Amino acid sequence: MNRKEPKGDYIVRATAYRGAVRAFACRTTALCREAVRLHQLSPVSAAALGRLMSGALMLAHDLKESHQSITAIVRGDGPMQGMTVVAQGDATVRGLVIQPVVETRYARPGKLDVGSAVGRGTLTIIRDLGLKEPYTGTVQLVSGEIAEDLTYYLATSEQTPSAVSLGVRMGPEGISQAGGLIVQLMPAAGESVAERLEQRVVGFPDVSSLMDEGFDPHQLLDLLLGDPEIQYLSTTPCSYACPCSTDRMRQNLTALGRAELTGLASDPDGIELQCHFCGQSYHFNQDQVQDLLDQAT
User: Which of 23, 82, 83 is nearest to 58 (CA)?
Assistant: First the structure.
């Protein structure tokens, strides 16, 4: 059994019950803290975005190439309005919240009410494998609590029976723990495996509470699956990272089209662009915008 356990954020992939179940678990505390720092998120927004980033990272862990990606888009009628998360095949993730600061409400003592902040709406998952057209699936939100919504998406759009648990635990100084797990039945899984897994999932403790007690992602899967022959296949560090660059921003400007660029080129101060995922600013002076306009001719 391979049990290499990094100290920081990481994702572990495993199989259990002789290959009938595959599972992922992650610790995302540091990267969620980085998202809070970049976007100045209120507690509920931090919990919601942290859950979605954790879930997307685990879904993206199946991707074969680093440039491939999973984009998760939540749109709701709650005060947050929505979130967008992009997880890459290289185990990096980035995300944003439309309204980063919302009122802090609790569903019960110690449990942030993420569902009411998200509201009713949709979850869209886009799998971009670098082909002509990405695969896109959209479902109605079940609760807005993210884990239940991803569970419903996987069952409905990808026909994969899954159990998803996601958590972001807040302390006096911000996020103390964040992470999650996804367990999926493989097509060859029999009824006995399905029933056993269902029994173990019911009443399973909140993952962030377990992590607060010292459980790492490997131990979360050990506790949930209870299979002494569990096989750990990979352990991969994960992080918050944004691939924005001057070249990417130049491409974005060019994509605006000639009419839009003509207006921008008339401004003697040039134009300032800011990446919504990391806050990095990019300035293009008037001559640079004019060059882009000339190239678009």
Answer: 23
Indicate whether this model's pTM tops 0.70: yes
pLDDT digits 0-9 by tens, 67-104? 999 999 999 999 999 999 999 999 999 999 999 999 99
- From 246, 233, 250, 243, select the one nearest 87 (Cα to Cα): 243
Fold of 246-296: CBS domain Like (3.90.1280)
Q: How far apart are CA 216 and CA 222, in angstroms?
A: 10
**Cα(50)–Cα(208) distance, integer angstroms:** 11
The radius of gyration of the chain's CA atoms, rounded to the nearest angstrom, is 21
CATH architecture of structural domain 10-240 = 3-Layer(bab) Sandwich (3.55)
Report in angstroms the alpha-carbon separations of 138 from 56, 79, 156, 185, 229. Answer: 15, 21, 9, 22, 36
Closest CA to 188 of 18, 1, 3: 18
Q: Which residues contact 22 (CB under 8 A, 6 or more apart)?
A: 13, 14, 15, 16, 183, 184, 186
